[in-house]
Design goal:
Order of helices and strands: HHEEEHEEEHHHEEHHEEEEH
Shape: globular
Strand content: 25-35%
Helix content: 25-40%
Distance between the termini: 29 Å
Radius of gyration: 19 Å
CATH topology: outer membrane lipoprotein receptor (LolB), chain A
Number of strands: 12
CATH class: Mainly Beta
Number of domains: 1
Amino acid sequence: MRSDWIDVKGRVAIAVLAAIAVIAGVAIFAGAGGGGAGGPLDPVAQAAETTTHAGGAQMALRGSVGVPGLAGAISFSGQGSFNFAAHEGSLTMTMAGFPASVAAKLEGGSLQMTELFKASAIYIGSPLFAGRLPGGARWMRLDIARVQQALGLDPSSLTSGGTNPAQYLQYLRDAGGASTVTGHELVRGVPTTRYAGSIDLLKAAEAQPGANRAQLRAAFQKLISQTGLSSLPVNVWVDSRGLVRKVSIELSVNAAGQPVKATVVTEYHDFGATPTAAAPRSSEVFDMTGLALQNLPSGG
């Protein structure tokens, strides 16, 4: 396999992985709970706590990202399940809206991906990888814990599992943001109350354990300086049982001086036990953790 392909595709894969991780984190944040500054007085934080005790849920996700230079937005949709207690699950994703030159190289013009969250790693599989990964591998693996450690973060205290995308609820709760009722709607036929709130990134950083506080504050300050985004606006739909049924986020930020817009909507249903996420056989996996570490910006 050509080294230039590894370099270019590796960077692309890292970018896609980061985008999906952020999307999943924001969208699934309602799945975590366990005390915090928000406490039982905040209905969204309380609903997150209740949802956690449900064990897990099936998910449906959709959204779009407007990329500078493209006539339209890149859209994505997916479905899967997540176990809130074990911090594991899976997502199948379809991405479309690529430029014609890229779409022509994809089957049906869209990119199919499968994500597995297991222990401290994320596995990504796609037909695009066929014949293109070293050793005939069919999956790429990224060890999130190692990447976090390279950034000076303690994975065990920050995410209780390294790949738990539900950590954003912790940020919402620790930021002390209040939520307000904005309406009442049906979600998959279930009556819900809609709440609006936000995650103050710097407040969330200050509430983290001492081992992570300074590093997370620095990371968020860098993010704010690069994007102008100091808080994450969210909408959450909660049913009469106190379960989170839907989460949405709509962002407009500046990245490298270019406007980027993103919309993500995730729905939750069939709460309870979820299928075990089985990691692929090692012979089928290309571990891209080393490549990711090499491409980390200087100073994290």
